[in-house]
Task: structure prediction
Amino acid sequence: MFVKRHLISTREFSKEEIDYILSRAEELEVYARGNGKEGKGRKSDLLKGKILANLFYEPSTRTRFSFETAMKRLGGEVINLSSIEASSVAKGENLADTIRTVSGYCDVIVLRHPREGASRMAASFSSVPVINAGDGAGQHPTQTLLDLYTIKREGLLDDLRIALIGDLKYGRTVHSLAYALSLYHAKLFFVSPEALKMPEEIKLDLKEAGAEVFESTDIKDVIKEVNVLYVTRIQKERFPDPAEYSKVAGTYRIDTDLIKENEDVMIMHPLPKVDEIDAAVDGTKNARYFLQTFYGVPVRMAVLSILLGE
Ligand code: NCD
Result:
């Protein structure tokens, strides 16, 4: 049923396709746990003989490692562009030529690039599937899938009232997530400093899709209305002018006092976090962001096995 060749944007998903990926992730989760007690020592060679190429032109910890772990836990192999400086990119090679070359060495490419639209462009030059692992301020679809998986595993996907907090202007995770959530009839609360609001064109698309959207600049306005807080980092590296960054830096922070106003609220974050979540929140039952990062493995296993035709 899932016939997409590339995975570029959550705008291209139907609800059925997302549901299928999430249910496949649930089946594969046992392998994601590896040889530990919970994994029961089960191993898989579903992707034996397949090679994934990680091409990261921007920093990454979770996305790159969890793709690598997902591939290896399913018996596949991974090649990595270890650094831009060590590759022909440093000699001036353009992205199209790199993709034409690397797609001859592997079965799937995972690409992170600072330029919006880079993955779509790369896909047009690739002989193998391209997965967008973040294109500038554009999209980050596999992050969204693991976000949805986390929400589903907590049983909240059917009555979701979620606040997307922070840098909604440059944050690709929230762009991807908002589109996907419009398929689930979630109530969306956008909370950001005035200068970092969700782009108008995305809000328009969401409204056209029938989504219920509320906006605010203060978390306190919405804390009692929601069951999930999805917090994001201010994307410092995307600001054209450092002075503009200084104006918004440190303007919002989630702390334990805020949680007291809604003791059951689940707190998510794509990570890395900088100062937007007080460290005391990490140890609360509300914080789910480290579990969320683990779910990157089963979800990326599902994506890879589906794109590679199992
Ligand atoms: C995010 C990203 O790269 O967009 N990180 C991630 O993949 N988990 C969020 C961020 O960098 O703030």
The chain has a mean pLDDT of 94. Residues 10-140+296-307 form a domain with the Rossmann fold fold (CATH 3.40.50.1370). The pocket of N-carbamoyl-L-aspartate is lined by residues 62-63, 134, 140, 143, 172-173, 233, 270-271 (CB under 6 Å).
